[in-house]
Amino acid sequence: MSFTVLILITFVMLLVQTTLIPFDWALVLVLSEALLAKDKEIAWLAFVTGLLLDLFLGKPWGLSSAALLIIAFLVFSVRRYLLTRKLIVVYMIAFFGEFFFNYLLFRSFNLLRAGFFAMVFSLVYFFFSAKEIKDNQELKLKI
Question: What letter would DSSP give residue 40?
Fold first, then answer.
């Protein structure tokens, strides 16, 4: 997926997050890309997503970017050890990602919200990873 498309998706997700559904869609996008991306453009995505989130929430510039960059870096750097099809591993990544994101940004933590976020993220992750595996298998068949 091109970087421009990702930024447009990010913009729409942040509009939804700040107006309709108060859920950490920015974190879902950054965590998904950190687990599934094949290159290091995740840093730019986390940075731009954080700046847009700060713009929409009225937070100081760079606060969300710093939090998302830290989380994206940690997940991206250890993903080869964590990349698995086991639900509990993906759930724990999402749970701790939500914990660090909310603690760094808002200095608060809600256990129920983190559990719900981890469940939703796990479902989104498995949907996109299954689609990527299917696309890779179709590509191999064409070759």
Answer: T
pTM, whole model, 2 decimals?
0.71
Picking from 142, 131, 121, 100, the residue whose alpha carbon sits closest to that of residue 32 is: 121
Give the separation between CA 108 and CA 29, rounded to whole angstroms.
Answer: 21
Task: Tell me if 68 sits within 8 A of 46, measured CB to CB.
Answer: yes
pLDDT digits (tens, 9 = 90+) for 60-101: 888 888 888 888 888 887 777 666 567 777 888 888 888 888
DSSP string for 119-137: HHHHHHHHHHHHHHHHHHH
The enclosing H or E element of 70 equals: helix 63-82
pLDDT digits (tens, 9 = 90+) for 9-38: 888 888 888 888 777 888 888 887 887 776
Q: How far apart are CA 73 and CA 113, in angstroms?
A: 23
Q: How many CB atoms lie within 10 A of CB 19?
A: 9
Where do the domains of the chain lie?
3-142
Report the distance separating Cα 25 and Cα 28, nearest Å: 5
In one-letter notation, the amino acid at residue 74 is: L
